[in-house]
Amino acid sequence: MVCIYSFPDDNYESMDPREDIFSGNRSIDAFVNDYYQVTLIRTDSPQFQLACGFKVGDKASDVFRYFEEHYTASDDNYYANYNYSLSQDEVVSFRINTPELEDESLIESIWIH
């Protein structure tokens, strides 16, 4: 998988997004497959919110409550442990800042794939 866009601007390179986590700069990244189709967008920045208004840093239990009411949970845990089907072909995944979901857990990153 090739990173085609990273904000703040960074060199393009081949990487495994599950292993090569964010650079430490709050960012948004887009990845393409061999056919140059965007297959993953991920962010660890509160600057980029979802259409429903949630963003990195929000209380995880509030986010998950909303997604459980509006979407179907997905067992696609390739990128993260909390996953919801947006459509037949799209999944939104969340990583949290604690090992297990707790009252204080916050959204650490958002992955759309």
Report on this model:
This protein has 113 residues and is mainly β. 10% of the residues lie in helices and 33% in strands. It is built from 1 helix and 8 strands. It has an 8-stranded antiparallel β-sheet, with helices on one face. It starts with a strand and ends with a strand. About 4% of the residues have low confidence.
Quick summary:
The chain is mainly beta and 113 residues long. Helices cover 10% and strands 33% of the residues.
Structural class: mainly beta
User: Mind summarizing the main beta sheet?
Assistant: 8 strands, antiparallel
Portion of residues within helices: under 10%
Average pLDDT rating: 84
Q: Which of globular, elongated, flat, extended, rod-shaped describes the shape?
A: globular
Q: How many strand units?
A: 8
Beta content: 25-35%
Spatial order of the strands in the main sheet? 2-1-3-4-8-7-6-5
Sketch the topology as an H/E string, one letter per element: EEEEHEEEE
Unreliable residue stretches: 8-12
Radius of gyration: 14 Å
> Cα distance, first to last residue?
13 Å
Treating each run of at least 4 consecutive H or I residues as one helix, how many helices?
Answer: 1
Keywords:
globular; 10% helix; 8-stranded antiparallel beta sheet; mainly beta; 113 residues
How do the strands and helices of this protein lay out in sequence?
Layout: E1 2-7, E2 13-14, E3 28-32, E4 38-43, H1 60-70, E5 72-73, E6 82-85, E7 91-96, E8 107-112
